[in-house]
Design goal:
heterotrimer; A mainly alpha (298); B alpha+beta (417); C mainly alpha (287); A: mainly alpha; MetI-like fold; two-stranded antiparallel sheet; 13 helices; 71% helix; B: alpha+beta; D-Maltodextrin-Binding Protein, domain 2; 8-stranded mixed beta sheet; 16 helices; 16 strands; 44% helix; globular
Chain lengths: 298, 417, 287
């Protein structure tokens, strides 16, 4: 056999790549992009879901700009992101890093951390809501009271509600992040760490110079995905504040919850679609910025 | 298109059952939300109806309550869905504006007869001289009380006026040395029934009215409104006899025996009847400072959708007539425990110790005509939260609420023009 | 043996003792943290063993424990259907995702072609639209194609996910190109290189993906709710909401349902977690 020119190999590769992608691309276009495009068109319409549609131009966006609730919700969404992402990732990495070195009952401990992730969000939200109640029934306030510390208002407070809802959201997602981090840690070839030990690198130096750089793809994934998760936070807020969703006084309301309410309780589809466009732009900007900041530099 | 689909459906159903002989001539579909007793009652009603009307079959479909609206919202624009649909009376305007339902035929549902037989608040279902929907059952609010706690506090008769309610609640509330409430005198929670109580009962009892006669203008930003809101928020702020959100839900606090008084609807009777270790009674809502009474009444109605035409419309109308008959109301009361929508329909009297207070309340009950029930409820929830959590003044918070709610009404009426 | 190496050995032994203490402390802290993580689940279990009158007391040990709730849930014929539906839908969706997400992730990680980044960002962008906004177009689509109230209808939106593509792409990036090159020289075609060479190397990630996709579908709520009409087609989470009724919720039943529905996911987790470990062992042998 004679050696084929490089170009042909290249072309064959490209053909294979598109061959692999053919079915998925068709799937994404029909099931995802087409409905998304429809939602984007809706953003420029007035449609109350039940009646006729009429052209609204930029009316929905102008209304959004002038809506104080939207700005409050916008701020909340970023608070969820800016606190939730770093706190949960630091916690998850710490646990994963140490759990990776534990042999005794390793599987059991890992299952303990993962169990919350597997459990019904509705049921867990209710338990947390009870934890947060004032005395005589709230677990946390009873604990505070037994130390003689005055009670805290957790959910029924315009300042504490958001962090009080963020805590179970972090709690529920921790198991997921730990598993991914551990899979990333396991993917590091043992020989690299072996070499570092022989070279006499300290634990900290091994972590920062070997482990973390080699885990970069995992970290990129988790940072981007966790950020998307917190920017799209909905279930936990909705279930923790069922009676006054996103309350009190919108103190804990994230953007997706506002979208949901606009669409399914006010039937204001055009306005909800405009909010969706904003959310989409924010999410895309944040994700692309993160990917760009963490890109592989030659 | 629709009939083609129906035919296909019927054919599929026939093959599925493998039945060649007894085929239904008309099948209509009925939707309601899932609640075991309601579904059971409706199954029974359908069985009786089908026995009386051979050739018509009714298929009942039900969805979880929490998502009933979401489900209906997704199905309707697609042209999927029922011939007869159950909806909350407060959604009627939405459904009419969107051409989702059609008027009930006047030959079977004469407006004069309806007005003579039903409770007056059912007139909210009349638009442009025709009735669009009718209830089988109605509900109202009443004051529940915990007999043991009242007895222990030396209270012999339950509160009959708002002043008595405050005085009793002061005796009933248990506050420990650190200022923590362990039993509330009266439950409060705007997200439960209190927003109705404030809107339709307290504001009226303090001499005002929540809305103008045509329901297009908010009128509670008045002295009466301020007095009502001050009285309501005063329960917690001034008298300290309650905590908003105590035990998460007012009904939970009452059921756990940690509340002396509790305002709730007739729909709570079922749950309370099964509550062990709780000895409770129920009485009419307390009278206002001038002795006046008011109540909030609400109901679920059934309507014929615009999808039903020809034979199906006829069948749907017959079915509607049957489920609003005295017989149906009697069965509904027995199985679901909800009060008949016609005062004369069933054998419960206004003297009944349990149903009596609710039935008496219906006589002076008001049904709010909502434009967007959820959003209007939220306005009231926020109004009270501003006072309780942010220390806003009653006057400011009330004024802000009036502006916000007026905006909702205006938007709604501008859109439906 | 030189003096220097003896000194090194002694230092090593002391270090090991210190390390032993550290390891014990590490274990204790991790274990305590794990217990704290499952504390709320203990309350879930406790509530599922209570009669309604006791539900609103937050005692961990029921005064009058009962299995009535479990009996009621498990004997409900509908519950069997919900369980079966959820299991079927979650399993099939998992298989589909493992195949397609891995294939797309691999292509995006290991091939060089024009628009590669565009495809990646386009796929990623599907994470940025809340499901709530897609539900109505999907519903219209399902109605048109007759997918309403069917398993296919429940499943189709989740057959491929951007989450899986992203995850797999990241893990395939860690696979050294030399391995693939070697297989290429052996004359394997690109599909077989992916299937036989690359896939086994990312087994831990596949196991993780399987767990997440299964769980995601096991707990999916809004779409199954919208697309199903008959109670016998409901998935478990949709079915469980029938325990919350107007104005009130039967919490003891919700908790029982939640407790029962955790079990299969726990089994799936335990099964796949073994794969994670085996994958590592194999990688260790090869490396």
């Amino acid at each position: 056999m004679t050696r084929r020119p490089a170009l042909t190999v290249r072309q064959k590769q490209v053909a294979w790549a598109w061959g692999f992608l053919a079915v998925p691309v068709a799937f994404y276009v029909v099931i995802r992009f087409y409905p998304t495009a429809q939602a984007f068109v809706l953003a420029f319409l007035d449609w109350n879901l039940l009646g006729s549609r009429s052209w609204a131009g930029l009316g929905n966006f102008a209304r959004l700009w002038a809506d104080p609730t939207f700005w409050k919700v916008f701020r909340n969404t970023f608070v969820y992101l800016l606190i939730g992402t770093p706190v949960s990732l630091l916690l998850a990495f710490t646990v994963a890093f140490h759990l990776d070195r534990v042999r005794f009952m390793h599987g059991t401990i890992r299952a303990l951390y993962f169990l919350p992730f597997m459990t019904s969000a509705v049921a867990m939200a209710w338990v947390w809501r009870w934890f947060y109640q004032p005395v005589p029934i709230g677990l946390f306030n009873n604990a505070l009271a037994s130390f003689g510390i005055p009670q805290l208002r957790f959910l029924n407070s315009t300042t504490n509600a958001l962090p009080a809802i963020l805590a179970p959201a972090i709690w529920a997602g921790l198991g997921f992040q730990i598993i991914i981090f551990m899979a990333g840690l396991r993917a590091i070839p043992k020989s690299f760490l072996e070499a570092a030990r022989i070279d006499g690198l300290s634990g900290w130096a091994t972590l920062t110079r070997i482990t973390l750089p080699l885990m970069k793809p995992t970290i990129v994934f988790l940072v981007v995905f966790t950020s998307i998760g917190f920017l799209r936070i909905f279930d936990h807020v909705f279930n923790m504040t069922t009676a006054d969703p996103g309350g009190p006084l919108n103190a804990s309301k994230p953007l997706v919850l506002m979208i949901y309410q606009t669409a399914f309780s006010s039937y204001d589809m055009g306005y909800a679609a405009a909010q969706t466009v904003v959310l989409f732009v924010v999410l895309l900007a944040v994700s692309l910025a993160q990917l760009w900041l963490m890109r592989d530099r030659p | 298109m629709a009939s083609w689909k129906m035919g296909l459906l019927a054919a599929a159903a026939a093959t599925a059952i493998g039945a060649t002989g007894a085929r239904a001539d008309v099948e209509i579909e009925y939707w309601q939300y899932f609640f075991e007793a309601r579904v059971k009652a409706m199954d029974e009603l359908i069985a009786r109806f089908e026995a009386q009307n051979p050739g018509i079959t009714v298929k009942q479909t039900h969805f979880p309550y929490a998502d009933y609206r979401t489900k209906v919202a997704a199905a309707i624009p697609a042209g999927e869905g029922p011939d007869v649909v159950q909806l909350f009376y407060g959604w009627l305007n939405d459904y009419v504006a969107a051409d989702l339902i059609q008027p009930l035929p006047a030959d079977r549902f004469a407006p004069a007869a309806i007005e003579a037989n039903y409770y007056p608040m059912v007139q909210a279902m009349k638009i442009d001289g025709a009735y669009w929907a009718l209830p089988t059952a109605v509900r109202s609010l009443a004051l529940f009380y915990n007999k043991r706690l009242l007895e222990a506090a030396g209270i012999t008769a339950p509160a009959a006026t708002l002043d008595e309610l405050v005085a009793h609640a002061g005796k009933l509330a248990v506050v420990d040395g650190a200022g923590n409430v362990s039993t509330v005198g009266v439950t409060t929670g705007m997200t439960a029934q209190d927003h109705h109580w404030l809107r339709e009962v307290l504001i009226r009892q303090f001499g005002g009215a929540p809305y103008s006669d045509d329901n297009r203008t908010v009128t509670y930003d008045s002295d009466a409104g301020r007095a009502a809101l001050a009285w309501y928020t005063g329960l917690e702020k001034e008298h300290g006899v309650t905590r908003a959100g105590f035990m998460d839900e007012p009904q939970a606090a009452f059921r756990a025996g940690r509340a002396g008084y509790h305002i709730d609807g007739s729909f709570r009777l079922g749950a309370l009847a099964g509550e062990r270790g709780l000895d409770w009674g129920v009485t009419e809502l307390p009278a206002g400072p001038d002795g006046s009474r008011s109540n909030y009444a609400s109901y679920w109605v059934n309507a014929i959708t615009s999808k039903a035409a020809g034979e199906e419309f006829e069948a749907a109308a017959k079915f509607m007539e049957f489920i609003t008959s005295d017989e149906a109301m009697q069965l509904w009361l027995e199985v679901v425990g909800e009060l008949p929508a016609k005062p004369a329909a069933a054998g419960t009297s206004a003297e009944d110790p349990v149903y009596g207070p609710f039935i008496r309340g219906l006589a002076y009950g008001h049904a709010t005509v909502f434009a967007d029930e959820t959003a209007q409820r939220q306005v009231f929830v926020d109004m009270v939260n501003r006072v309780l959590l942010e220390g806003a003044s009653v006057a400011d918070s009330l004024a802000a609420a009036a502006v916000a709610e007026q905006a909702i009404l205006d938007r709604y009426h501008a859109a439906s023009k | 043996m030189t003096a220097a190496s003896e000194a090194l050995l002694r230092a090593d032994a002391a270090g090991r003792r210190r390390a032993g203490l550290g390891a014990a402390l590490r274990w204790l802290l991790l274990f305590a943290g794990g217990l704290a993580m499952v504390a709320p689940l203990a309350y879930m279990l406790a509530t599922s063993l209570k009669y309604p009158f006791e539900v609103f007391n937050l005692n961990l040990v029921p005064e009058e424990p009962t299995l009535d709730n479990y009996r009621e849930v498990l004997l409900d014929r509908r519950f069997g259907w919900w369980f079966f539906n959820s299991f079927l839908v979650a399993s099939l969706t998992t298989v589909s995702n493992l195949f397609w997400d891995a294939l797309v992730g691999y292509t995006l990680a290991k091939f060089r072609f024009r628009f590669r980044q565009v495809v990646f960002v386009a796929v990623l962008s599907t994470l940025m639209i809340p499901t709530e906004m897609l539900v109505i177009p999907w519903y219209l689509m399902s109605q048109q194609f007759g997918w309403l109230n069917s398993y296919w209808g429940i499943m189709f939106p989740g057959l491929m996910t951007a989450f899986g593509v992203f995850l797999m792409r990241q893990f395939f990036q860690t696979v050294p190109d030399d391995f693939l090159e070697a297989a290429r020289i052996d004359g394997l075609n690109e599909f077989l290189i992916w299937w036989r060479v690359a896939m086994p190397l990312v087994r831990p990630a596949l196991a993780a993906l399987a767990i997440f996709v299964f769980l995601g579908n096991w707990t999916a709520f809004i779409w199954p709710l919208i697309v199903t009409n008959d109670q016998t087609m409901y998935t478990l989470p949709v079915g469980l909401t029938t325990f919350s009724v107007e104005q009130s919720v039967q919490w003891e039943m919700i908790m029982t349902g939640a407790a029962v529905s955790v079990l299969p996911t726990l089994v799936v987790f335990l099964v796949f977690q073994r794969f994670i470990i085996r994958g590592v062992v194999m990688a260790g042998l090869k490396g």
